[in-house]
Prior knowledge:
99 residues; five-stranded antiparallel beta sheet; 17% helix
Amino acid sequence: xxxKTEFKKEISVCHDSSHGSTEREKVTMNYSVWADESxxxxxxxxxxxxxxxxxxxxxxxxxxxxxxxDGMYSLDLDVIKVLGTWGFxxxxxxxxxxx
Length: 99
């Protein structure tokens, strides 16, 4: 089964790098999350309306459990929550991200 959803949310963001961080600002982010249950793969994309902030990455599952991701240092909790509503096991990943 294939899953896909899109939504918007206002969040506080900044640019982080080895040179430091910019000041946080509130922006509206567009979320796109998808998963293919049979292939045990998925992905996500986040971008601001002003197109200054952007992130994307891959989601990897093992027997329906989210076991790995790439693209961001810390996977957004809203992405994890969406996967949970679709029936994927996200308990371990959610605990890791909430620390």
